[in-house]
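If your schedule permits, I should be very grateful for your opinion on a structural question. Kindly check, if you would, that the fold set down in the tokens agrees with what the sequence suggests. Thank you for your consideration; the sequence and its tokens are set out here:
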Amino acid sequence: MGELDRIVMNPLVMGGKPCVRGTRVTVGTVVGLFAEGHDLASVLALYPYIKAQDVQQCLAYASWRSEEHELTLAV
């Protein structure tokens, strides 16, 4: 995965949730809109101050965070 330079976490902004740089739009908000059936055009219309690249990085970040990791458990 490439660098996610458009996603930031600041404890003083939205409780430290990952957000689009320079905004209060959380990754969860963007992903949730897609889950509700919105497409890229409608997301950008709802948030005209973010760009398609911001949306792409939100989706990449969410995908990265959802990766499953197998851990060895103690017997």
Residues 29 and 66 are 16 Å apart (CA to CA). The chain has a mean pLDDT of 92. The radius of gyration is 14 Å. Helices lie at 27-35, 40-46, 52-65.
